[in-house]
Amino acid sequence: MSLTDLTLSAMRTGLAAREFSACELTQAHLDAMAANRHLNAFTVETPELALAQAGAADVALASGSAGSLAGIPLGIKDLFCTKGVETTAASRILEGFVPQYESTVSGKLLAAGAVMLGKLNLDEFAMGSSNETSAAGRVISPWKAIGSDAELVPGGSSGGSASAVSARLAAGATGTDTGGSIRQPAAFVGITGIKPTYGRCSRWGVVAFASSLDQAGPMARTVEDCAHMLTAMCGHDPKDTTSLDLPVPDFAALLNADLRGKKIGIPKEYRLDGLDPTIAKLWDDGLAWLRAAGAEPVEVSLPHTKYALPAYYIIAPAEASSNLARYDGVRFGQRVMPEGGSLADMYEATRAAGFGKEVKRRIMIGTYVLSAGFYDAYFTQAQKVRTLIARDFEAAFEVCDLLLTPTAPSAAFAFGAKVDPLDMYLNDVFTVPSSLAGLPAMSVPVGLSADGLPLGLQIIGRPLDEQGVLGAGLALERAAGFTAKPEKRA
Amino acid sequence: MSWIVKGETGDWEIVVGLEVHAQVTAESKLFSGAATGFGAEPNTQVSLVDAAMPGMLPVLNAECVRQAVRTGLALGAEINRVSVFDRKNYFYADLPQGYQISQLYHPIVGEGALDITLSDGTTKSIGIERIHLEQDAGKSVHDLHPARSFVDLNRSGCALMEIVSRPDIRSPEEAGAYVAALRQLLRYVGSCDGNMDEGSMRADVNVSVRRAGAPFGTRTETKNVNSVRFIMAAVEVEAKRQVALIEGGGTVVQETRLFDPGTGTTRSMRSKEDAHDYRYFPDPDLLPVELTEDYIDACRATLPELPVAKRRRYVEALGLTDYLADVLTAEKANAAWFEALSASLATRSGKPEADMAKTAANWIASELFGALKRLGKDIDTAPVTPDAAAELLALVADGTISNTVAKTVFEAMLETGEGAAAIVDAKGLRQVSDTGAIDDAIAGVLDANADKVAQYRGGKEALFGFFVGQTMKAMGGKANPALINERLKALLAG
Amino acid sequence: MSVDDTTVRRIARLARIGITDAEVAPLAAELSAILGWVEQLAEVDTRGVPPMAAVMPKRHEWRDDAVTDGNVREAVLANAPEALSGFFAVPKVIE
């Protein structure tokens, strides 16, 4: 077995026992990256930096001063600003942008001894569910459907993270999740990913998409792997006023799959008409597994579920339209200046050339819903509906401790399969409501579709109950015994 | 006092509202830890937050909240227990985020009022609609390069209070008095230094005209006017322009204008015209500002005595004239100097403060201000302290020196920085109050001027002044004049 | 809500995104479809419901007023497409 096939947790053990060095581990991943460039998972590879960090990790490991992730090779989604390493958010408009600062979350991972292999591709500005909108080109899933050679999407927006972790190019990766961007790609490629409670991870230094929704989180191959990363990533940051000033548990040490006394809610509104029968079946299986772990199932109602997606597609574009106003060609990134043009001409040309189609579409929608005469009908109404959605969850959590749902309504699809933006947006139907409510939620791979593609289930918890979410995730993981691996590696 | 524009078709009344932008006195910016000082090298007082680098987030400066609340309290305004920061979205080269963080829907301070006094002695209350906190923009410099404007973000993100008046102002004079009174109040509170030259205070001037009693006309907004004089001028020329426009058959367009101090006219700012949809929405990076009663009480407790109350006290309790009360309350520093001098003088002379206040006030208004003006200094940099001045005035009060000698001593104090008593002693200026010595001197003067003594005694009493002068001269100017008078009268009476 | 061509141009102008004539009609159709879909929110009774103000309620945190940042002009200008004499440079603005 190759070193890259180890779980992050097993790598920790192996490194601690000096069975292999951090440099060897990193080199194995760099080799895998080099052999899998066709996946286009990385926007930037940083092998020299990685080996230097691995060398430092080896020294720390030898001297007993190693951090919790010493020597663990990770990929960093290219939405996290990394000091001295180009950060583009997969947008032409940020081409050549080299941050003079390190995001809080990537900084915490590095401080824990992690090795950065490179920056991971994504949908442009994290806007997308298929990784087809990246200016750096689409990311390809390492998976193939049975009997088909069609290239499949890895999901989005953290598609590079998903593809890299699934293809064993990285032990784990950072993702960000605004409406499902960690959970849906994790489900599409058969890995695990958790979006913690809004405010657990600092947003400082993460290129903003929709500020009231954006949350960083880990993506890795097991629940325990995610728990190790999550502990390192969370924590109060005085530079982010919305980050929560609460102690961070050692999630991995406290992992517990014993669900006795826990009630698992099944939201009836998530039983969509025409839900893929394989997914419906896995959902039932998941509930049975959790019951076997001691939990008691209850049916709950989240009556405003159907309004979550439309509310999200008002709030997120509105915030994005404002957050992306700073990309104007003045202080960083690309500038397009028509000969003899005015400042306004420069803005329009720069932004026309710098932003891709989906980003422009969302900026336009966001601009529209905030504009005079429409603000109350669209934005304020959406924020009120958001309150109702959060109340739905509060009410549900009075009768249950955790919710179990599918992560996505389908398995990974082929490139170009969803050309209608609305069709694409519907992919987030199960992940968006918990994003709007700021709740912790994770996707765990539990099985394969009829054509052999991974499917995930989602656990949603009360605010700050990452530990409960991880525990139920572990129970699912153990019962499902998901061991399938992608076939499409070079 | 109504102010009328006499048009060709009759009289027009003007309606003015002012939006004053006052930079909050704080070490660092509203949402970043960069410095706020004036006049630094370009882009040196800029953090990555101020430059709106990707992923940067605002963190609110507590001092700016405190100063806005104190200002609101000083204006007798409602303090909103919950206020919210909104984003005002527009593109401009000196607006790095592409939005200004401001407060539209829920400002930190609600309604209040400011009393102004006009030249005819009448007073008027001008309503305050609201005060909100917001970020200042950067600065564009247009004249350093033929094809480029240069952007300096030093000012970007500095905290401003926007103080919005009701449209209660009816004349250029009222506009000027309002801004002057507001500036005075802010300086008392310490929430803004009021340095209009450095842009710490500037006003957007909203002007419309109407027939008496008619509904409000269409208003124009003249941006960023930065002196009391210019504000008054902008009101006047804009009102007259509008009247001429309407009477010429035109209509006033709601627009943004610029006041040109060089020509004393306003002109349309077309560059701002197409950006009128600001798409305000609550800033998701910031939490609502929630204020407790305790917090507001604590802010109130730190307010100084405000100008109106202080002026009333000076007149009513200390018996100062209106003029002196105005002069001494114009600046908080004047009042502080005066009060320190009065207190010290009372202590040194053992007389009640109320008795010494007038002496102190008169001396400041005549001697100190005169000297400061000559030296080109202001009261904060005065070369003497209130206590040193009290030492001087106490010497006058107890008869050690005369008022005339006091002037000489004060000059010496300004030059040498030494204490009044020391100077008096060193120069031998102590007033002689020994009747024996005075009698000796008088005897000498009378002997030497026997003819004049005879004339005096013969009825030419106007000569009395001559004897006083000669005696004082004989005593080197140091004799107590009252004693000279008394003894001369006795001795001349023979 | 059906978005017409004029509205598309106005929104693009507000957002400072240059669009070609050929882009207008397709954008109008896409925006109309998306806005038509989100308009189902109008059917939700939100009387008396406050808009969400903070996702995770917490007490606000304020900074002490101290100079802790700035004086980093090189970092501020490092990525500028055009910087001259310590300033960012943009096409000349006529006010």
Overall mean pLDDT of chain B: 93
State the domain count of chain B.
3
Would you count the extended β strands of chain B for me? 16
Task: Identify the quaternary structure here.
Answer: heterotrimer
Most extensive chain interface and residues per partner:
A-C, 72 and 49 residues
Structural class of chain A: alpha/beta
In total, the number of domains of chain A comes to 1
Number of helices of chain B: 15
Largest β sheet strand count, sense and barrel closure of chain A: 11 strands, mixed
GO biological process, one term (chain A): translation
Catalytic activity (chain A): L-glutamyl-tRNA(Gln) + L-glutamine + ATP + H2O = L-glutaminyl-tRNA(Gln) + L-glutamate + ADP + phosphate + H(+)
Keywords (chain A): ATP-binding, Ligase, Nucleotide-binding, Protein biosynthesis, Transferase
EC number (chain A): 6.3.5.7
General description of the model:
- The complex is a heterotrimer of chains A (490), B (494) and C (95).
- Chain A is an alpha/beta fold and 490 residues long.
- Chain A has helices at 8-16, 22-35, 47-63, 104-111, 159-166, 183-189, 223-233, 277-292, 308-323, 343-354, 357-370, 375-399, 421-425, 432-437, 466-480, and strands at residues 42-45, 73-77, 115-120, 172-177, 192-195, 215-220, 263-267, 296-300, 402-406, 441-448, 454-461.
- Chain A has 15 helices and 11 strands.
- In chain A, helix 2 (22-35) runs antiparallel to helix 3.
- Chain A is globular.
- With 494 residues, chain B is of the alpha+beta class.
- In chain B, 40% of the residues lie in helices and 18% in strands.
- Chain C has helices spanning 5-14, 21-38, 73-77, and strands at 83-84, 87-91.
- Chain C has a two-stranded antiparallel ribbon.
- The two termini of chain C are 37 Å apart.
- Chains A and C meet through helix 9, helix 10, helix 11 and helix 12 of A and helix 1, helix 2 and strand 2 of C.
- Strand 9 of chain B pairs antiparallel with strand 2 of chain C, so a sheet runs across the interface.
